[in-house]
Write a structure and sequence with these properties.
Blueprint (H helix, E strand, L loop, with lengths): L9 H14 L8 E6 L2 H12 L5 E5 L4 H7 L5 E5 L1 E2 L2 E2 L1 H14 L11 E4 L13 H13 L3 E5 L15 H4 L5 E6 L11 E6 H12 L7 H44 L4 E3 L7 E6 L6 H8 L7 E2 L13 E5 L5 H23 L1
Parallel strand pairs: 2-3, 2-6, 6-7, 7-8
Antiparallel strand pairs: 1-9, 4-5, 8-9, 10-11, 11-13, 12-13
Length: about 350
């Protein structure tokens, strides 16, 4: 493993280790390591390729980030979708899924039980929900009981709205069973394509080896740019910048929620996002939003994603849809949701014919 440092910019890794210690203080007694990746999804993809075999059971909250589903679909996994609410993943749903699996166990030595739990814990894509602190402790205890490896995909960690941030699963990890994925895309620039994976040294080293035979390493230019920012900002300056970005997105959320309240009340229902950049809405009188959005919304300059894109079964009807408040101005949100209200009313009439 002497090549480990050759494929990463040492000064950036030093800054990132200091940042992780400051934010999360990983309590595990096992050695932990960091590898810089081409965006956090690159690290997530390599971790999935390392850990998932064809036909494996996979635990995740549904709806789930579409990119994660795209990574997993080629493995034809046995999905164990979990339920959530406005406070994130429901621990009893996780326990029920694990207990039900045990009940179906055939006793075959070939049959392998669930080994990974994928989590998008803060400002989740697409729901905008964050797992409450008490639930995090419950979920980690269940991971211990059933010997699960937690994949903590947390690109919206710095976009939690409110004064205090919830503890990460890495900060709870006494056993060395958490692989954490961080991103600079949401707080610096998505074009940098820079993320990093933190976790048990043995697993992180395997991801690094995978990088060496695929992309070699993350962009050196991007690594140097971010390293120079940390040289100038230090941790306090970086966190100050991140706080300003979070405040911007929180205001964007408030503008979109106001537009939804003004135009969509009675047509859709939603929970106020606690972080991230998405508003997840359920159409109350439309059983499936796919055709409405993909065929009839675009000509009206309405760009949303249908709920099916975030489900383990993409053929199942879904009344949900996702809107993003990252770029639109308040004026465009108002116009867009007024058009969406008109579209939904038209769709209701189409369904009645």
């Amino acid at each position: 493993m002497a090549l480990l440092s050759f494929f990463r910019y040492p000064n950036l890794v030093k800054h990132l280790k200091e940042l992780q210690k400051y934010l999360h203080e990983p309590p595990s007694t096992t050695d932990w390591e960091i590898v810089v990746t081409n965006g956090s999804q690159d690290g997530l993809c390599k971790a999935m390729e390392m850990l998932v075999d064809h036909g494996d059971y996979v635990l995740l909250e549904e709806p789930c980030y579409a990119g994660t589903l795209s990574i997993l679909h080629p493995y034809k996994p046995k999905w164990l979708p979990l339920s959530g609410d406005k406070d994130g993943l429901i621990p009893s749903s996780l326990k029920r899924a694990l207990d039900n699996y045990k009940g179906k166990d055939t006793g075959s030595p070939i049959e392998k039980g669930p080994k990974i739990l994928y989590l998008n814990p803060n400002g989740a894509n697409p729901t905008g929900t964050s797992i409450s602190t008490p639930r995090r402790y419950e979920i980690y205890k269940l991971a211990q009981k059933y010997d699960l490896l937690i994949l903590e995909d947390d690109p919206y960690y710095f976009l939690q709205f409110g004064e205090e941030k919830s503890p990460s699963f890495l900060s709870l990890d006494t056993d060395g069973r958490v692989l954490r994925f961080d991103s600079f895309s949401k707080i610096l620039s998505s074009g940098l394509r820079l993320g990093f994976v933190t976790g048990p040294k043995e697993l992180v080293e395997r991801i690094n080896l995978h990088m060496q035979v695929s992309v070699l390493h993350a962009s050196t230019l991007s690594q140097v740019l971010v390293s120079q920012l940390f040289d100038r900002w230090k941790i306090d300056g970086f966190l100050s910048h991140s706080s300003k970005v979070s405040t911007f997105y929180e205001k964007q959320r408030d503008h979109m929620a106001a537009a939804a309240e003004k135009h969509l009340k009675g047509l859709v229902e939603w929970h106020m996002p606690s972080g991230g950049m998405f508003l997840w809405m359920k159409c109350l009188h439309v059983e499936d939003t796919k055709a409405m959005i993909m065929e009839r919304a675009l000509p009206k300059d309405i760009i949303l994603l249908p709920g099916q894109a975030f489900m383990t079964d993409p053929n199942k009807a879904s009344p949900f849809m996702r809107a993003a408040f990252s770029l639109a101005t308040p004026e465009k949100m108002d116009i867009g949701f007024a058009k969406l209200a008109e579209l939904i009313r038209e769709e209701i009439q189409l369904q009645r014919k």
